[in-house]
Amino acid sequence: MEFGLLGAVEVRDEGALVDVGHVRQRSVLAALLVEEGRPLPVDRLLDRVWGERAPLRARETLYGYVSRLRKLLGLDIERSPAGYRLAVAPSQVDLFRFRAFVRDRDFDAALQLWRGRAVDGLESPWFDALRESLHAERLAAELDRNDAALADGRHAALLPSLRALAGEHPHDERLAAQLMLALHRSGNDAEALRHYEFVRRGLADELGVDPSRPLQDVHQRILVGSGEERPAGPRQLPAPHPWFTGRADELAALDRPGTVVITALGGTGGIGKTALALHWAHRHLADFPDGQLYVNLRGFDPSAGPTPPEAVLREFLEALGEETIPAGLDARAARYRSLVAGRRLLVLLDNARSTEQVVPLLPGPDATVLVTSRLKLAGLVAAHGARSVSLDVLDPADAREFLVARLGPGRVAAEPEVVADLVSWCGGLPLALSIVAARAAMEPGFPLAAFAAELRDQPLDALDTGEIGTNLRAVFSWSVAALSDEAARAFGLLGTVGTADISLTAAAAVVDRPAAKTRMVLRELENAHLVQQHVPGRYRMHDLVGLYAADLAADAGTRLADFYAATARAAALTLEPHKPLPEHESSHALTFDTNAAAMAWFDAEHACLLTEQRQALARNGFDVVWLIGRALNNYHLRRGRTTDDIEAWLMALRAAQAWDDRLKQSAAHRCLGADYIELGQSALGHEHLGRGLELCEGDHEAQGGAHRAIAWAAEFEGDLEKALEHSLAGLEQFRAAGHQIREAEALNEVGWRYACLGRYAEARTFCEEAMLLNTRLGHAEGSAATLDSLAHIAHHDGRHADAVAHYGEALALYRELDNSAEEATVLEHLGDVHAAAGEDEPARERWERALKLYREQGRDAEAAALEART
Hints:
By secondary structure, this protein is an alpha/beta fold. Helix content is 63%, strand content 6%. A 5-stranded parallel sheet has the order 7-8-9-6-10, sandwiched between helices. Strands 1-2-3 form a 3-stranded antiparallel sheet, with no helix packed on it. Helix 17 (396-407) packs across helix 19.
């Protein structure tokens, strides 16, 4: 199957045109295709398809389009929290084939792929901008083709297309120069000079500017009867890397017009800064007719210190033709600036150590400067107006294309799953990919699976060819060697963290420093591109950088585990002050003033908490395992994260079993039983619930909790009489224990089950007693649950206004508690009340909000049931 974007959007299956559907459905397909296999967030996809004119139920409409595309074309459109992702081979999409041909400088093949106006027929602000960008790519390819043809002496054959293009783009000065040169070399100087005058007048009248220096130079050379360029200046650029792939966004950033003449390319060691700089420079040689200067500043060279600016200036002055080199840094810098004034030069300063090393090497405003460094060079940006371009890893599609370019399509296609593993283990780091590719190229008879197995087992050992420049450990060590002692210590300690990322406060616990001091240390690591602040206040390392850090000798003890356990305890107690939780000490633990703050912390740290719980279990840190599992329970309930709750409780159960603590085991079994029942695993759920009741014999509060869990499970499975029986038993046990908050909750649950059985008078009596007790105790969550029950009773008693009022109060409390799971349920019930009263618009609005929350929480069964009846 082939996809066309360079014209009207079309799909062909073995050459036959496939009907993709109406314009919005084609828009969804095109928006996903251009991402080259990257996930596209739903909000961004909606904006691309509709802009500001999205319909009321745009998300539901979008889901329908995606579903139909899957069925119609058999496409694998994945959905994840990051958005929708459509993965197709680059060779299936004409846009990506076009770009590949351009990279290979096969311009004729590239331009033959165009069928007309790009993404023709798709209209939105985003598609308009995309179309303009793609047409700019096409024009750039045409101009590159023209340069190649002129260099090959094919000026006569080129003239017709040059004249046509010049008519379409009368202000493009590069195109004007090409047409003038072709005319001159064809013996038509008069027309060449007339065209120059036409362009000059157009620029003056419409833009108020004179022709650029390169166009004036062509004009002057034709006037004196020579089409040859003036003697070339220095040409010091190393050859471009032959297997360069990807980096479309970064290349576009470097191409972006403007007044910026200094660009700082930053990134960690091995990220491909020099490769990108050289690739861009060689693509733009024609823009720098006066030459290109290059120097490796050796900012992170293990064998020598950074090259002094004085030494670089001597080399530059000699390359520029100076025979007498002045002494002293300032004198050399002044002479250098004088020599390059007015000249269109490129100066590539590679591997800089600091802004101070770079500043003396900056020429005047006529030259363009590219600086690469492992540091961010903030001083260059702040004081000299440099543009900062930071390099991240290659995406999987570009990483695979790199291996294809290096090893050949046949070898890569022979082991597709192995190649995916190689790409994954290299994490998109170009140096790692280069090392793997080099080792595979040196052993052409070896299957790629051999290298993948080594990379999986010993990643850093596998990424070593035996030479210092292609040894990943050595490359990373050069960056670490440049750090301050405090930052180097922090880097090693962060290597002990097993989580995907880490917050500032957690990092402060690991390094055992105040948060303000830790922030400054992390800033130094950020500046060295050893950590990345991917969202404000959260930091992560590239997987391979993390493996290198983990190899360093560092011991953070249990500081991170203690921080997570103690802070999770504080957050859980904020949500449920009445819940008994064991003490846990950490000098870095956080406190919370509100439910919202506690829930926000759980949201941000959830993945890290589960990871730390697993690690604590592996080292027999049972106190941390139990406390994190217990603390997460209410959060999981509020967010509807049942599967995560099971994982946390299974680990907590193992800790309780290791302690031989029957009551803790009972608590874990009860919660696991309820979770499994909710997921439809009835037999397993009842097994846990039964075990939970057995283990708590003799403890009134624990027995009350066991009966409560069994009652909930019975109601969930439709046995309301059994649910009421165990609710009453639970109430009796809580009263015997003297636990008033649990008593209030049990009163409400008894009332609710009476209501489910249609016994509304009894139900109201129990729920009103529960409401009084909850109010007296200040138990907000109990009050919200009881208001929900009272609303249900009022609705079935025919008291519409009371039902709406009670549901409204419950909704406000759940929002204050940040309990989005119960918020969704109340919204659905409130919609039902409005619908029963014939109030269709309020009902539809509540159901739509409930449906949105159900989908966000992964509650597919509730979402499907609500959709089916509305």
